[in-house]
Amino acid sequence: xxxxxxxxxxxxxxxxxxxxxxxxxxxxxxxxxxxxxxxxxxxxxxxxxxxxxxxxxxxxxxxxxxxxxxxxxxxxxxxxxxxxxxxxxxxxxxxxxxxxxxxxxxxxxxxxxxxxxxxxxxxxxxxxxxxxxxxxxxxxxxxxxxx
Length: 147
Known about the structure:
Elements: E1 21-22, E2 36-39, E3 44-51, E4 54-59, E5 69-70, E6 74-75, E7 82-83, E8 99-102, E9 105-106, E10 113-116, E11 120-123, E12 132-137
Parallel strand pairs: 1-2
Antiparallel strand pairs: 2-3, 3-4, 5-12, 6-12, 7-11, 8-9, 8-12, 10-11
């Protein structure tokens, strides 16, 4: 029979809440959404969830640094609405994964610009002549490096 916590105040100081711990190959017989464990194979806290139709254990967080990178700067000419190639590839619909500025003005993803051809950006109106177009990548990444 399991134990339940109800209206319990945890002590502060040198106390901690323990969670079940096991290797990647061992886990509950019938895991359900929301269960949490510490995976001793990966040294990561994990939760069980059916994400996009694929049930499984998922890392709660990644540690390390995700690279945020400014692409080469394009220059508006008052005529063109298409610029590229960008250093990174993004499909249409992934506009929210980057920050785009024309001059110092932030551009609204999907409204002021869209991606096409994976490495090009299309603006709904022409950026004015000599305006710097800055594209900053890395906000949709889950790939990190330990630093």
